[in-house]
């Protein structure tokens, strides 16, 4: 997961990460929902080690840090990491942000293998060149019985229409060109890849968008956005 065209897309949006009505309005809208879903799976987050992979500007990382977790956030966009570090300082939060991919983190810090209580891959899986290699590295960082949390976009015609055409061109919920349909992931594909890496997926739910209220909610409809979790065996 070297910095590529996908990663460089986000280098242009440094000042936008923490603008709730800006280019990343959709992330700010889903953040309370995905944090609530992920965090309720762990009894007590205090002092739990959490790795947020593809952390961007730290929108999700900060929620876990506020709950007392020991958070590390990694990303390949230097602009995003700078934005994350700056906002954490302004918020008085201690979060260890690193410019790295999972494999790079393991190379520079081999002692981190199987060291995290939870690994999060939220809104990053649909931007990868090689999903299998990425997941191998990500899962190797997780402890036995640790939690693997994910949130991504299904590979359906509905997702192509709503997540790309509507979200990027009509509703302006994400910058144009953010998503590439070829990189979207069917839940069955993700479940199989995670199982190959020792993760047993326990639940997958949909995130449904209500355009009238401009809000997301957890549902059983996984046609577009979905999230879930698994446990490392």
Question: Helices and strands in order, then pairings?
Answer:
Layout: H1 5-9, H2 25-39, E1 49-53, H3 59-66, E2 70-75, H4 78-91, E3 96-99, H5 102-108, E4 116-122, H6 131-140, E5 142-153, H7 157-170, H8 187-196, E6 199-210, E7 215-219, E8 225-232
Parallel strand pairs: 1-2, 1-4, 2-3, 4-5
Antiparallel strand pairs: 5-8, 6-7, 6-8
Helix pairs in contact: 2-3
Largest sheet, in brief, is: 8 strands, mixed
Radius of gyration: 16 Å
User: With helices defined by DSSP (H or I, 4 residues minimum), what is the helix count?
Assistant: 8
CATH topology: Rossmann fold
| Amount of helix | 25-40%
| Total domains | 1
Strand proportion, as a percent range, falls in 25-35%
- Written as H for each helix and E for each strand, in order along the chain, the element string is HHEHEHEHEHEHHEEE
3D architecture notes:
- The chain has an eight-stranded mixed beta sheet with strand order 3-2-1-4-5-8-6-7.
- The protein has helices at 5-9, 25-39, 59-66, 78-91, 102-108, 131-140, 157-170, 187-196, and strands at 49-53, 70-75, 96-99, 116-122, 142-153, 199-210, 215-219, 225-232.
- The protein has one domain (5-232): Vaccinia Virus protein VP39 (Rossmann fold, 3-Layer(aba) Sandwich).
- β1 (49-53), α3 (59-66) and β2 form a beta-alpha-beta unit.
- α2 (25-39) packs parallel to α3.
- The longest helix has 15 residues, at 25-39.
- The chain is α/β, with parallel strands linked by helices and 233 residues long.
- The mean pLDDT is 92.
- It is 36% helix and 25% strand.
- The chain is globular.
- The chain contains eight helices and eight strands; from the N terminus they run ααβαβαβαβαβααβββ.
């Amino acid at each position: 997961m070297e910095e590529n065209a996908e990663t460089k897309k986000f280098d242009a949006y440094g000042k936008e990460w923490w603008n709730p009505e800006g280019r990343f309005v959709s992330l700010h809208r889903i953040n309370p929902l995905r944090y609530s879903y992920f965090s309720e799976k762990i009894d007590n987050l205090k002092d739990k080690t959490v790795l947020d992979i593809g952390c961007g500007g730290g929108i999700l990382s900060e929620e876990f840090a506020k709950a007392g977790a020991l958070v590390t956030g990694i990303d390949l966009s230097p602009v995003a990491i700078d934005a994350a570090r700056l906002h954490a300082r302004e918020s008085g939060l201690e979060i260890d942000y690193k410019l790295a991919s999972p494999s790079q983190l393991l190379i520079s810090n081999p002692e981190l293998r199987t060291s995290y209580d939870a690994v999060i891959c939220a809104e990053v899986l649909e931007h990868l060149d090689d999903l299998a290699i990425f997941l191998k590295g990500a899962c190797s960082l997780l402890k036995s019985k640790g939690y693997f949390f994910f949130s991504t976009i299904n590979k359906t015609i509905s997702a192509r229409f709503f997540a790309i055409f509507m979200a990027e061109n009509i509703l302006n919920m994400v910058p144009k060109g953010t998503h590439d349909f070829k990189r979207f992931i069917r839940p069955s594909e993700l479940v199989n890849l995670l199982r190959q890496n020792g993760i047993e997926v326990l639940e997958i739910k949909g995130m449904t968008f209500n355009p009238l209220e401009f809000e997301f909610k957890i549902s059983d409809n996984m046609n577009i956005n979905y999230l879930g979790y698994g446990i490392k065996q």
